[in-house]
Design goal:
- The complex is a heterodimer.
- Helix content of chain A is about 45%, strand content about 15%.
- Chain A has 12 helices and 10 strands.
- Chain A has a 5-stranded mixed beta sheet with strand order 3-2-1-5-8.
- By secondary structure, chain B is an all-alpha fold.
- Chain B has a single domain, classed as Cytochrome c oxidase-like, subunit I domain (Cytochrome C Oxidase, Chain A, Up-down Bundle).
- The chains are: A alpha+beta, B mainly alpha.
Chain lengths: ~375, ~525
């Protein structure tokens, strides 16, 4: 008896200790109304399980401690009880019904995607996210890609890992505080999943499907998540970073981006020098190409071919451009015509044709990209 | 006891096993085939385990240390496939082969030649699957759930070998389950009515029907993949008017019953072992049978709870949430019945009992996290994180795998006629028990803290949990070499075992001598009230 009390107090102590550490070990409470409700559901069902577990395991361990043959305990002969069977069928069923009520309420609230203040389309690619800001008629105002910015050196253990190792990107998504933002989630290739734990929103990005999510975030700050559906080689390297901004600051930033997009549109007709193209091309290559073909162009054959000294790199320029533009159907080589604008396409092709010892000796301008398509 | 032996003794002069390798190649004997299945599954357990240790070694610290991300994906994928289709399922079929004829009082399985075929398909299927790991473009790398279009348009060429291997495993399972159903329904000794069947026989009967129902679904699924990849169809290709989500519906319509295929026989096993060592009859036999049947029925109407984040209508989400929560009721009934069986028993704690008690406790913990995962809004936070990894490893490792180990220790004397070393068996149990918890318990925390599954590298806040988990995995992995040693030591040096090797064991198999004769019951035994299970 005394021993049992000791056991029970040890178990209780462990539970309390667990509760003390709860902040580090538990689901984040998050910053939205929904995330707090989800956390509440999580803790409720957790404690229901703890109580049932304590009862069942309590009876079991009591029995293990006291009903042993080594203590001379003689076995009883009972082996059925309809009353008990009914009780432990009906009582859990009632508990579950009680649990289902708040779960249903939260789920209904999560599905209420209407009445939004703004809409952002989130598009998954192997292995990056594209964010498109849409106007009231769902036309794109501007868009950008968001790619992991953690240096390779850190991943390959050649330098010290930073604070936000693997949870940092070059361009992050920005949304205003206190406004209802609706997200339309889809994918360009395989299935991805877009998740921000602090908002308690996660939805699969499925090619050919448009999924909906919404959030209202009252607190400004940076929020980080990751892709949560296996999407190939770099599934672990496509984080989600969202900055929630003061409403006024967001509006200023938004207006600037709309202007910048227009300026970019004008650049399509400009003629660039080789140096300008190389500089822009290197940046585009690093973001879009290097995860498969590597920084040194060697690739990972046979899945990801080398770009060093191949016929494609020094042969007819338009074929090279066409390959990058259309991709290779049925392979990991994507149709970058959908992802990059004419300046980016021209510069990355120029860069590939004049790097790692490749010497095509020509120049590729944005208008070549535009002509390539109007020519057809 | 001696009466029971003499009752079958006079038939013992009939032919025994053939000599040499042909004994194993051409055997139609349920015990030989059971042995083949069990050793094969043990080999697969070791291979699948090595792949898991590659994964855990890479995850020991943040950063990429040993393998490339693509090879990492091949490791997780093949670990899952080998453990599910190569280790757990064949081990249960092996146990069914050994035990069902003895437990229903039959001489052998109903369809012995098909029995041979269903085993001998497996080594070829797995040789083909594993060989892809050595090919230039690498083996399957799209997860054991192989979601399209990652497994179709974007898959390595080896996917075709994978598809053929799955077809062969499916054919093997279907033949195995037909054989089990035919044996149970046609070859029971007179007097063994359905509601007097041992629990292991009951759970396998229901499992066999589940297999028959869903393995063809899996076969259809991989055939559709084959057509998408090679013959230009677009079942799962959105660009051609297909639907990647259709893949998941079909997969989980197979996949959810599949997870019960891997746990129902385990329920049967512990329902034999707990009463034996509590020296008390199984509490609530009837309700145990009904609970298994209810779980089997429910397994067909909960599949989309694996897909809560895929984007379903609200009504669909609610339906699958409610049905999933309902599974807790029959599962709870089983746990309550096991505890009531122990209550006021006269318990001893030999190795099989230790594994069975660990099964009840740890499987229940896996069940609790399953109940949490059923709550759809909370599932959005858990989905595809390490919380899910912790959940299904708790039900499959200290669940299914522990029950198999418990069964091996429990029936070892009946199979070999020898007793294993109890001291070594207990040592194996404690290493496994500690190892399994160190491995999988911290994964609950890394999952809740936000670590996605199937990633080769992770953010720094997950580092501590991963290190602990990796240490546990190596403890657990290497303690299975001890398991092998205990078995070989027992076979070679074990003391002779009595016919009823455990004083509390009941059932027809214990009326046979140890080791059991080559052809179990050549004359139907009398099913006494003492050996029947109700």
């Amino acid at each position: 008896m005394k021993q049992s009390i000791k056991y029970i107090s040890v178990i209780l102590g462990l539970i309390m200790a667990g509760y003390g550490f709860a902040d580090e070990l538990n689901m984040p409470v998050g910053v939205t109304e929904i995330s707090r409700q989800v956390y509440g559901l999580h803790m409720t069902i957790f404690w229901v399980c703890v109580v049932i577990g304590a009862m069942v395991f309590g009876v079991m361990f009591w029995s293990i401690i006291s009903h042993r043959r080594s203590l001379g305990y003689k076995a009883a002969s009972f082996h059925e009880s309809t009353t008990l069977e009914l009780a432990w069928t009906i009582i859990p069923t009632i508990l579950l019904v009680i649990m289902a009520v708040p779960a249903t309420q939260v789920l209904i609230a999560m599905y209420d995607t209407g009445g939004e203040d703004m809409t952002v389309e989130v598009r998954g690619y192997q292995w990056k996210w594209q964010y498109k800001y849409l106007d009231d008629d769902y036309n794109q105002t501007f868009s950008f890609f968001s790619t992991l910015s953690t240096p390779k050196d850190q991943i390959e253990n050649r330098s010290v890992k930073g604070e936000h190792y693997l949870l940092e990107v070059d361009n992050h998504l920005r949304i205003p505080a206190n406004r209802k933002v609706r997200f339309l989630i889809t994918s360009e290739d395989v299935i991805h999943s877009w998740w921000v734990p602090d908002f308690a929103i996660k939805r699969d990005a499925v090619p050919g499907m448009l999924n909906e999510l919404w959030t209202i975030v009252p607190e400004t700050g940076f929020y980080r998540g990751q892709c949560t559906e296996l999407c190939g080689k770099d599934h672990g390297f496509m984080p989600v970073v969202v900055e929630v901004m003061e409403e006024a600051a967001f509006d200023t930033w938004y207006a600037q981006e709309v202007v910048a997009a227009a300026v970019r549109e004008e650049a399509m007709s400009k003629t660039f020098t080789s140096e300008e193209l190389m500089a822009e091309g290197k940046q585009v290559y690093t973001t879009f190409c290097a995860s498969c073909h590597l920084e040194n162009g060697q690739g990972i054959p046979p899945a990801f071919p080398s770009l060093v000294g191949t016929e494609m790199m020094t042969g007819p320029r338009d074929e090279h451009l066409r390959l990058v533009f259309d991709g290779v159907p049925g392979s990991a080589m994507q149709a970058f015509g959908k992802q990059l604008d004419a300046v980016q396409l021209a510069s990355v092709v120029h860069y590939e044709r004049h790097s790692w010892g490749n010497k095509a000796g020509d120049i590729t301008q944005p208008r070549d990209v535009i002509n390539l398509n109007s020519g057809q | 006891m001696s009466e029971a032996i003499s009752a079958v003794d006079h038939d013992d002069h009939s032919h025994g096993p053939a000599k040499g390798l042909t004994r194993w190649l051409f055997t139609t004997n349920h015990k030989d085939i059971g042995t083949l299945y069990l050793w094969f599954s043990f080999l697969m357990l070791l291979i699948g385990g090595v792949l898991a240790l590659v994964v855990r070694a890479e995850l020991f610290q943040p950063g990429l240390q040993f393998v490339s991300p693509d090879f990492f994906n091949q490791m997780t994928t093949n670990h899952g496939l080998i453990m599910v289709f190569g280790a757990i399922m064949p081990a249960f079929v092996g146990l069914a082969n050994w035990l069902i004829p003895m437990q229903v009082g039959a001489p052998d399985m109903a369809l012995p030649r098909m029995n041979n075929l269903s085993f001998w398909i497996l080594p070829f299927a797995f040789a083909m699957l594993i060989s892809t790991l050595f090919s230039e473009a690498g083996g399957p790398n799209f997860g054991w759930t192989f979601y399209a279009p990652l497994s179709t348009t974007y898959a390595p060429d080896s996917v075709t070998f994978f598809i053929l291997a799955v077809h062969m495993m499916g054919a093997s399972s279907i033949m195995g389950s037909i054989n089990i159903i035919a044996t149970i329904l046609n070859m029971r000794a007179p007097g063994m009515t359905l509601m007097k069947m041992p629990m292991f026989v009951w759970t396998w009967l229901i499992t066999a029907y589940l297999l028959l129902a869903v393995m063809p679904v899996l076969a259809g699924l991989v055939t559709m993949m084959l057509f998408d990849i090679h013959f230009g169809t677009s079942f799962f290709n959105a660009a051609g008017g297909g639907d990647p989500v259709l893949f998941q519906h079909i997969f989980w319509f197979f996949g959810h019953p599949e997870v019960y295929i891997m746990i129902l026989p385990a329920f049967g096993i512990v329902s034999h072992i707990i009463p034996a060592f509590a020296r008390k009859r199984l509490f609530g036999y009837d309700s145990m049978v009904y609970a298994v049947a209810s779980i089997a029925f429910l397994s067909f109407i909960v599949w989309a709870h694996h897909m809560f984040t895929v984007g379903m209508p609200l009504a669909g989400q609610l339906f699958f949430m409610y049905t999933t929560m309902l599974i807790a009721v029959p599962t709870g009934v089983k746990v309550f019945n096991w505890v009531s069986t122990m209550w006021r028993g006269s318990m001893t704690f030999e190795t099989p009992m230790l594994f069975s008690i660990a099964f009840v406790v740890l499987f229940t913990i896996g069940g609790f996290s399953g109940l949490m995962l059923a709550i759809t809004p909370a599932d959005y936070q858990y989905h595809d994180t390490y919380f899910v990894v912790a959940h299904f490893h708790y039900v499959l490792v200290p669940g299914a795998l522990f029950s198999i180990m418990a069964a091996v220790y429990f029936w070892f004397p009946k199979w070999t006629g020898k007793m294993y070393s109890e001291r070594l068996g207990k040592l194996h149990f404690w290493f496994s028990f500690v190892g399994v918890n160190i491995t999988f318990f911290p994964q609950h925390f890394s999952g809740l803290a936000g670590m996605p599954r199937r990633i080769p590298d992770y953010a720094l806040q997950f580092a501590d949990f991963n290190m602990v988990s990796s240490i546990g995995a190596f403890i657990f992995g290497f303690s299975q070499i001890l398991f092998l040693f205990v078995l070989i030591h027992g076979i070679r040096n074990g003391k002779p075992a009595a016919a009823r090797a455990w004083e509390g064991a009941r059932g027809l198999e214990w009326t046979l001598p140890s080791p059991a004769p080559y052809h179990s019951f050549t004359h139907p035994p009398k099913v006494t009230d003492d050996e029947a299970h109700a």
